[in-house]
Amino acid sequence: SVKAVARAGAGVNNIPVADYTRRGIVVFNTPGANANAVKELVASALFMASRDIFGGMSYVQGLTHITDASEMSKLLEKEKKQFAGCEVAGKRLGVVGLGAIGALVANMAVELGMEVLGYDPAISVEAAWRLSRRVQKVENLQSLLAQSDFITLHVPAIQATQHMINSETLRCAKPSAILLNFAREEVVDMDAVIAALDGKRLAKYVTDFPVPELLGRQDVLLMPHIGASTEEAEENCAVMAADQLMDYLENGNIRNSVNFPSARMDRNGGHRLTFCNENVPGVLGHVLSLLADRGINVIDMMNQSRADIAYNIIDVAAEPGEELLAAVRAVEGVVRVQAL
User: Fold this and answer.
1) Average pLDDT over residues 236-246
2) 35-51+86-222 has which fold?
3) Considering 134, 225, 264, 329, which one is annotated as catalytic?
């Protein structure tokens, strides 16, 4: 009975996507709905990593034994040098992944006066248009790591990105580099990061995905997975997920699916038939023959494919009856059929 699943967020690693695809269930996510929230947290992480803000605040909070303001002022003037850091302006930021979040982070860093390098072999045309012209594109990850003072990760957790930051790639990074991971835990080989920190081949690691091995380290800043934890982001994700589900269930349109192709067609009057099938030759032709045999005229249609699945939207002049729907379901390769 399940027709579609929507994830109010970007990650779908807790959804059986492959199984749902075989069953013709569309899986949606909401890329970009929480992008501004993550961007702002990355900004705060840049500042906290470059200047010991947290250490300084903790130090002041610990001065509970001092009751005289003058004494406190003198002590702070003496001790504040231990919390000195550097400014991010003029430093080089390497952004790995230039999607909805990565592009916002890159553009923000440009406005902060940073020199920004970007790496994304799969950047979309839409994302490229959003990117500031002052962001310099590099051809490979190793080049970005070698040049960057700060490295921030914004890639999805897929097979191609599993442990993309590992012992081999970290050898390219500057010993003074600071690595930020606000993408997914899986994109970083934690053993390699710890070894790089221990060997002074990486200065600091900042992440929104804490693990026990990192607790208590002075060269690590840990956050409790709060990248999207703002009222605005949660509302944006929920609204976007609901809108996409509604458009699919009412019109058959697909936006931001992780397993089906994008497909959108304006209503052209009449009735709408949608079906998905194995991406093999002849299925669409067979279905069109079924319509022709019953004297049903096609007003408009769309066919899109993605990997092993194809999706079709067909507007027809007559209402598709149950007999026709059963005939379409019986076509070899057809997975799911809907009349809307």
Assistant:
1) 97
2) Rossmann fold (3.40.50)
3) 225
